[in-house]
Amino acid sequence: MSDRDPLVHIRMPDTLRKTLQQEAKASSRSMNAEIVHRLLESLSLNDAGYTGTDNLELSGIELGLIGIWRDLSEEQRRSVLILLKSIVSNNDAG
Fold first, then answer.
1. SS3 5
2. pTM of the model
3. What are the domain boundaries of the chain?
C-alpha cells in the first residue's frame, strides 16, 4: 500500500474494533493491514494473485471470474485449474 491509496473512514462497533486490534497484534500487522488482509481474504483476491503491493485494478471480466471461482466446489476448482493448465501448455507448444 502507498500513501496515494484512497483513505476510507468507516464506523464499526467497539467490540469489533477491539477484536481486530487483538488479531492485528497476534499476526504482527497494523490495524489497517489486518483490515485490508481480511477484506482481501473475504473477496478471494489473494487467490487471484493480488498481493497488496500492486495496484488493484481488476476489469469487470476479472471480477466476474473471481465471483464464479468463489461459487465453485473444490472439485470444480481443481477441474478448472487442470483445464487452464492444459490450455496454457497447448499455447506454449504451438
1. coil
2. 0.47
3. 1-57, 58-94
